[in-house]
């Protein structure tokens, strides 16, 4: 049953794919609570009640890709496209640093304007001005050479969700111009270069089965990422997958807990998508084993234009409001947001 499998997972941090599938298919409210409680205890034993914050700067919504689920896909003509200048990005970092952020996440579409020269210049400048901060990039698939140059410029972490560990499922979510093999190659290259790597997937993505999620967990178990970003799929009305239902908050929280059991010291964000699906979603995420939150640090003027999915929260707020909001939310459940780079602790 569930209990035996969880006990095995707690001890060995590994299970067969069939066992992961069993855990996903045979949940009950009681076992959910029990597993989330275990995950929270593990998190507390490693990270205490500290929650790490990352200042998320969505610096371009221009993208050459056409992922079927994503609101800023190239073929969505309704998006007002923008890219922040180096000055605007640095000014966001300045605001963020004053607010206590010690990690900046530069996220964007795959925008050809940001050549290696341009992006490296931005990364080095942030690195020079804020030597006490970690720089995380999340700009999709690039060449090994590009990843290497960005690493040398001072980026230490990279978020590149694998999206799904199943090649057939991958093809249902992406056009044939994108390849599962290439995405996996990129993830391995990032690891080889020395980045702290974040992978992850959407929960409840169109066509996703319990077997697919079990494969995702197996991939997480074998790859041992430093970070793992998971959040519910949320349909965007101007995408080909607009008619699929959103993923569930409960299942997302359950998977957060399982991931915590698989990788006890992994950095696990309670995502904005989780907060979008449920006003208490991020709190629920932390109470399932998440230990990171990523408040929006983008200039308020552009936030509405970085709409990956419908009804995204925080698009009207100022950076300081998001920071304060999350601090209060975390305090309300007995956790504190800390001013810290928030590196992974190795156990
Ligand atoms: N372009 C970079 C990349 O592909 O890795 C980074 C930006 S991309 C918009 C960041 C993540 O947003 C994706 O990895 C995907 O999992 C998530 N995302 C996109 N559309 C979504 C949706 N409709 N619901 C939930 N998450 C979504
Ligand atoms: Fe942005 Fe709450 S985190 S308003």
Automatic annotation (TrEMBL):
SUPFAM superfamilies hit by this protein: Radical SAM enzymes (SSF102114)
Binding site for [4Fe-4S] cluster: 63, 67, 70
EC code: 2.8.1.6
Top-level EC class as recorded in UniProt: transferase
Co-factor binding details: Binds 1 [4Fe-4S] cluster. The cluster is coordinated with 3 cysteines and an exchangeable S-adenosyl-L-methionine.
Chain ranges of the Radical SAM core domain: 49-271
Record: residues binding S-adenosyl-L-methionine: 163, 183
Cofactor(s) essential for the protein: [2Fe-2S] cluster; [4Fe-4S] cluster
A biological-process GO annotation: sulfur compound biosynthetic process
Cross-referenced InterPro entries: Aldolase_TIM, BATS_dom, Elp3/MiaA/NifB-like_rSAM, FeFe-hyd_HydE_rSAM, HydE/PylB-like, rSAM, rSAM_sf
Binding site for (3R)-3-methyl-D-ornithine: 138
GO molecular function: 4 iron, 4 sulfur cluster binding; biotin synthase activity; metal ion binding
Keywords per UniProt: 4Fe-4S, Iron, Iron-sulfur, Metal-binding, S-adenosyl-L-methionine, Transferase
NCBIfam families noted in UniProt: rSAM_HydE
Protein name from the UniProt record: Biotin synthase
Biological source species: Catenisphaera adipataccumulans
Lineage: Bacteria, Bacillati, Bacillota, Erysipelotrichia, Erysipelotrichales
């Amino acid at each position: 049953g569930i209990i035996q499998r969880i006990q095995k997972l707690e001890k060995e941090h590994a299970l067969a794919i069939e066992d992961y599938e069993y855990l996903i298919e045979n949940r009950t409210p009681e076992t959910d609570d029990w597993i989330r409680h275990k995950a929270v205890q593990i998190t507390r034993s490693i990270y205490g009640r500290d929650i790490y914050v990352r200042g998320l700067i969505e610096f371009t919504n221009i993208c050459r890709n056409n992922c079927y689920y994503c609101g800023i896909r190239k073929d969505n003509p309704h998006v007002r496209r923008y890219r922040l200048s180096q000055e605007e990005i640095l000014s966001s970092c300045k605001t963020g640093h004053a607010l206590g952020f010690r990690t900046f996440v530069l996220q964007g579409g795959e925008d050809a304007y940001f050549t290696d020269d341009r992006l490296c210049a931005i990364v080095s400048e942030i690195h020079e001005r804020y030597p006490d901060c970690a720089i995380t990039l999340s700009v999709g698939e690039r060449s090994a050479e590009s990843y290497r140059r960005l690493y040398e410029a001072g980026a230490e972490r990279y978020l590149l969700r694998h999206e799904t560990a199943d090649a057939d499922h991958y093809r249902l979510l992406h056009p044939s111009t994108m390849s599962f093999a290439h995405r996996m190659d990129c993830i391995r290259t990032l690891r080889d270069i020395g980045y702290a790597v974040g992978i992850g997937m959407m929960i409840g993505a169109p066509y996703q089965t319990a077997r697919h999620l079990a494969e995702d967990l197996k991939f997480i178990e074998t790859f041992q990422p430093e970070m793992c970003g998971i959040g519910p799929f949320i349909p965007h009305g101007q995408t080909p997958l607009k008619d699929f239902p959103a993923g569930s908050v409960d299942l997302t929280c359950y998977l957060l807990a399982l991931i915590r059991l698989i990788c006890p010291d992994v950095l696990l964000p309670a995502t904005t998508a989780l907060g979008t699906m449920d006003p208490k979603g991020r709190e629920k995420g932390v109470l399932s084993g998440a230990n990171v939150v990523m408040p929006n640090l983008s200039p308020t003027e552009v936030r509405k234009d970085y709409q990956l999915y419908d009804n995204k929260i925080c698009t009207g707020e100022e950076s300081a409001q998001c920071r304060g909001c999350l601090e209060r939310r975390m305090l309300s459940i007995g956790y504190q947001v800390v001013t810290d780079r928030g590196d992974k602790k190795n156990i």
